[in-house]
Records
---
Amino acid sequence: QSVLTQSPSASGTPGQRVTISCSGSSSNIGTNTVNWYLHLPGTAPKLLIYGNYQRPSGVPDRFSGSKSGTSASLAISGLQSEDEADYYCATWDDSLNGWVFGGGTDVTVL
Amino acid sequence: QVQLQQSGPGLVKPSQTLSLTCAISGDSVSSNSAAWTWIRQSPSRGLEWLGRTYWKSRWYNDYAVSVKSRITINPDTSKNQFSLQLSSVTPEDTAVYYCAREKGFGVLRLDYWGQGTLVTVSS
């Protein structure tokens, strides 16, 4: 039911690189910049990436973002146990005139 | 550092009005470079943007089509806060509600979020 499509889960061992994808359309990702959030249950979502690839102050450079056409990706390199969380993509949709989100990807560190 | 502190009841009866408040510190609800938003999250609907209020020489509101007939977001400049009112609630409105700051032109982001409030609609 989410406007943006994410795979529901991803996993890796400590130190590995994990990539999460987010697919949208011309009215959202195709036109506007993408944000990525880390979300732990019971806490406020934390902004990891904005403007497709920019990191707010304090976010480790292990997290990187990219965008191509109507899709975006978040990569986590040097996976750590503390990276276990839900990750969401988000962007503005010009047709809906509002924010739209992905369904979230549950990242597990094996 | 911007902080958003949410308050409001966690239980609302069906057909009544859900009311939440988000108090802002570290920024102003009247800032002409930010918008103040409400978002909710439920297992059935995921993350859902509800609407926003912002100041650009006058107050503006944008609302999601799904709740447009039932929602009001109001700024309170005297207390530097903003509120959400959602009328005629049903159990489908049960969710964790978040307030958030929207920032940026062309590089929009929801950069600061409140702690979330679980609102259950039940008699």
---
Amino acid sequence: DSGVTQTPKHLITATGQRVTLRCSPRSGDLSVYWYQQSLDQGLQFLIQYYNGEERAKGNILERFSAQQFPDLHSELNLSSLELGDSALYFCASSFPRGLRLAGAYNEQFFGPGTRLTVL
Amino acid sequence: AQTVTQSQPEMSVQEAETVTLSCTYDTSESNYYLFWYKQPPSRQMILVIRQEAYKQQNATENRFSVNFQKAAKSFSLKISDSQLGDTAMYFCAFMKQYGNKLVFGAGTILRVKS
């Protein structure tokens, strides 16, 4: 168990709908990352938040948005869903409180993922 | 931009034997980290081993070791004494020093046969 939790585990919805995926980082971790794993695109980085602020953006569609709340949990919002959005969405966390952001390597601990199926 | 290439989509090995998974990468960075992640059927992402590019010594973790060739931009994973529990998808990944995102290869499915 990595200490990162994600809900729900599975989500089935229809095209055009909107869903919210939730992630709780490991206790004390300030940074949250979202990754998408799909058959077409493989595993790719979407976005990173650090202590409530967006820190880095990857191949995230404009229909997707994320935020990190004061309690450090994060939500990934996917809207106007398309069949191609079906994927496993992972959240990872790192950077324990007290460690410098630009310091040495920090392992990213992955949650169990949310499986999204768009029908 | 960095890219990671895993040229072996699938591999199989007999239990107790040794197998090597290949990975090459492309980057202009001089300092970075390389990783091998394991994704078993449960889909959990598990860090297997990490290599710092500034270290010449190859990393080892029990039955897992890497062959890191910085000049050739090659980073292979050797699994010794393969076990049935090693059956999984293995991803090679790259991260810049002070970076924040992992760049993954396409993965290699490893099947350990009894």
---
Amino acid sequence: EVQLVESGGGLIQPGGSLRLSCAASEFTGRVDYMSWVRQAPGKGLEWVSVTDIRGTTNYADSVKGRFTISRDNSKNTLYLEMNNLRVEDTAVYFCAAVDYGPGSSGPFFNGLDVWGQGTTVTVSS
Amino acid sequence: DIQLTQSPSFLSASVGDRVTITCRASQGISSYLAWYQQKPGKAPELLIYAASTLQSGVPSRFSGSGSGTAFTLTIKSLQPEDFASYYCQQLNSYPLTFGGGTKVEIE
């Protein structure tokens, strides 16, 4: 089974930048779609972004224009570039593989079935 | 954006109880709904997808139902390892929103 390991979290001042990485044990069709999800301290899950193997991306409104998701298939790695960080971006960030199936009008998603352990981002002065 | 409203937010129950959690979508999402379980300090785990399909390895005491805007997660007989938080997520359209979560605590 695919295993995911995040890294790159840390303490950063408001307005700063950080890049998270998610290394996958394999980058085959099993991880065609990859996503980032975050969880602020004591709060629920918040979907952040998704990308597919071709590099098509989608974002939550709360991060659009500040965060960029990307992947390097040659390195089996998913990234999240985070710019202009805000205090409210403080969270544990998880990467996850999206299980999907073929549909008549395009792929449909089943759910996020493989998760990393998370990396903590703290935005504070 | 599609909003998901979970209820209740907190639930106290005993081992052996039947537990039902509800997730309501602000607009129809067909059956594109997943349920997750999360224990403290751990990543979420996928329990159910397509509203009612049990993920491989998940005990059969878990079940899901619903379509359109109303969905339920049922735990037939609560076990000690089931005390956790549960989240629904819609995968019908972007953004792929989560519900606010339900924390199941020991009564």
---
Amino acid sequence: DAGITQSPRHKVTETGTPVTLRCHQTENHRYMYWYRQDPGHGLRLIHYSYGVKDTDKGEVSDGYSVSRSKTEDFLLTLESATSSQTSVYFCAISDQETQYFGPGTRLLVL
Amino acid sequence: KQEVTQIPAALSVPEGENLVLNCSFTDSAIYNLQWFRQDPGKGLTSLLLIQSSQREQTSGRLNASLDKSSGRSTLYIAASQPGDSATYLCAIDDGAQKLVFGQGTRLTINP
């Protein structure tokens, strides 16, 4: 398995609270991604990074922000969580070819 | 905007059968196409990657084909086994290192 970890693996939070998910890689890959997976929608790209401090929006970026201050870490922040952000969040890394996925974080917003 | 469709959404076959999973896409200007496997409650595992210039890729019992002109890819699984039961997803990279996914086919192999 590619060296990707996500933390936390599970989280329950309340509407309106900020939440930060962390993705950590040990592969030194340049590209990192955050996706969400929902029934009926499949996997959708939230944000991605093509280098330290270089990020861009994906298909469903509203309500999310990201930061990448080191090659190995990519943080996803929900500024004020809403129930519509209940989902499974996956981090991925890429060597410009294959994407490798982390184990996922299950987030429940009550 | 690229759209990726996988039909059927679910498939159930007896063990030992050869089977084909389908993936179609709307824009033929692709960089590569990837097939992934996802087990329940787990992340995605890359199975095969086909470059735009390639027609097929093989790995063990798996063979993936790509026909850009018709906007189609197939994943062929030979001699299916219960351990092949999972959801299979195809994804298109349009060259910007971003993937657009289909919704997947949930495959069940019955012993």
